[in-house]
Design brief:
By secondary structure, the chain is α+β, with helices and mostly antiparallel strands. The protein has 17 helices and ten strands. It folds into two domains: 14-149 and 313-382, D-Maltodextrin-Binding Protein, domain 2, CATH 3.40.190.10; 151-311 and 407-452, D-Maltodextrin-Binding Protein, domain 2 (3-Layer(aba) Sandwich). Helix 1 (47-63) links the parallel strand 1 (35-41) and strand 2 (67-73). It starts with 34 loop residues before the first strand and ends with a helix.
């Protein structure tokens, strides 16, 4: 779902628009000639993050003098992406969650990069689970997995201290999360725990908690997909949230959070705990001015026995289907340089870390590897002297993140099912008399209708 490698800024120069991704043969650059590519950069970055990005662009253009890189503000959200895709307003290089990969490939809404990707030196090193997200039915990779994550429990260490809780010992069960949230709310007046509920993120996090309780949202048998929303596990999750909201009064007053909104509220000290991707630290610092001393992260508690697991996902780098061959080639060069080489090559990793650290941006925040764990561990060693994140405060997560059972996101109609779950969790948090059984019965029927639709 939501994705978060360190990202991208600035407005697009209109005079360069025609240089990139055009279907007009007369505008296509000659082989080896100049080419301009528009690349995604996250909106709202601070000056240091912009400086770090611009430095990386300068390094790339020095090594590739015939390629002009033009930043364009872009951040994937479910509510805007479809319109951007249909309207042709996306940059040439843009990112999408793993859940969107197969559908975009099947509909040929992104460029087939398989030949170019096959030529990259690490093409055969991807984790198989990670690689599947960017592959077509025939096994060819159209999109490059640039980051992977497992969901985590983010918590505010300062609010823990104010509430009389030990920030070095975060909750390890959902009962402890509930009691800690109540204590934070009572002692500090802040939301002890908050929940994402809008722009498909409500369904994303509800599915995450369902996984942690041992449930699943779909069952796949051959070509048949069966909705599994109306289950004891999902009922237990919603009942927990209802109890925290109405019995404990520990969830604050905002029940319409999107990803950006909850990050901002957390970074400003308004939220004690929330669940999101484990690699969220970079975004919290570069976009929300999080104070590093306030930050803590832990693994999500899992129900004992059964099929409890941690929802895992990631981010794909893709290229517009409208791109000509020269733009596609230049775009893969950028993807290789900006996202990938630092994960697999020592010199590239050191250059990236040195440049990023010089701009006082985070280096060394935890994330799951797109390659194998050995390569990940080796890459951390390469950049050890530049790591500037509070690793000790992240140990409740990093000490366990590789030991958890990782479960992929639902694979059929993922975003559509997430969307229909948004109002379910909203209803539970805004209506004291919400009927959980009725909500799930209706949602299950709606989900099945989506899954039956070809």
């Amino acid at each position: 779902m939501k994705l978060t490698p360190i990202a991208l800024v600035v407005a697009l120069a209109a005079s360069l628009t025609a240089c990139s991704g055009s279907d007009d043969a007369t505008s296509q650059p000659s082989p080896g000639g100049p080419v301009s590519i528009k690349v995604a950069r996250d909106p709202g970055l601070d000056k240091g993050a912009i400086a770090a990005f611009d430095a990386r662009v300068a390094q790339f253009e020095k090594d590739n003098p015939t390629i002009d890189v033009v930043p364009q503000e872009y951040n994937w959200t479910a509510t805007t992406f479809t319109a951007q895709l249909a309207g042709g307003t996306l940059p040439d290089v843009f990112t999408v969650p793993f859940t969107d990969g197969r559908g975009l490939i099947e509909r040929k809404q992104i460029a087939d990069l398989s030949g170019l990707i096959a030529g990259l030196p690490y093409a055969n090193k991807f984790s198989e689970k990670v690689a599947q997200a960017g592959k077509a039915e025939d096994g060819k990779m159209w999109a490059v997995p640039i980051a992977a994550y497992g969901q985590a429990l983010h918590y505010n260490r300062s609010l823990f201290k104010q509430a009389g809780l030990d920030p070095d010992k975060p909750p390890t069960t959902w009962d402890e999360i509930r009691s800690s949230a109540k204590q934070i709310a009572e002692k500090t007046g802040k939301a002890g725990y908050a929940e994402l509920t809008t722009d498909n993120t409500g369904g994303w996090i509800l599915t995450t908690l369902n996984y942690a309780f041992g449930g699943r949202t779909e069952k796949i048998e051959g070509d048949t997909a069966t909705a599994q929303l109306d289950t004891p596990e999902m009922t237990s999750v919603l009942q927990l949230l209802k109890d925290m909201r109405w019995s404990d009064n520990s969830m604050g007053a905002n029940f319409l959070y999107d990803w950006g909104g909850i990050n901002q509220a957390f970074a400003s000290g308004q939220i004690g705990m929330y669940v999101s991707g484990g690699g969220n630290y970079g975004s919290l610092v570069t976009q929300n001015a999080l104070k590093p001393a306030d930050y803590g992260v832990a693994t999500i508690p899992l129900a004992e026995g059964g099929e409890a697991g941690v929802l895992g996902g990631g981010t794909l780098a893709t290229v517009s289907a409208k791109s000509n061959d020269a733009v596609k080639a230049a775009s893969v060069k950028w993807i290789d340089f900006f996202y990938m080489r630092k994960l697999a090559d020592k010199d590239a990793a050191v250059l990236d870390a040195k440049t990023t650290a010089a701009s006082k941006q985070p280096v060394g925040a935890p994330q799951l590897p797109v390659f194998d764990k050995a390569t990940y561990d080796e890459s951390l060693g390469w950049v050890k002297e530049y790591v500037n994140v509070p690793l000790e405060q992240m140990k409740p997560y990093t000490d366990k993140m590789f030991d958890q059972p990782l479960v992929t996101e639902p694979v059929r109609k993922t975003q559509e099912v997430y969307k229909l779950l948004d109002p379910v969790v909203q209803a539970v948090l805004t209506n004291k008399n919400a009927d959980i059984a009725d909500l799930l019965k209706k949602a299950d029927a709606e989900a099945q209708a989506l899954l039956d639709r070809k």
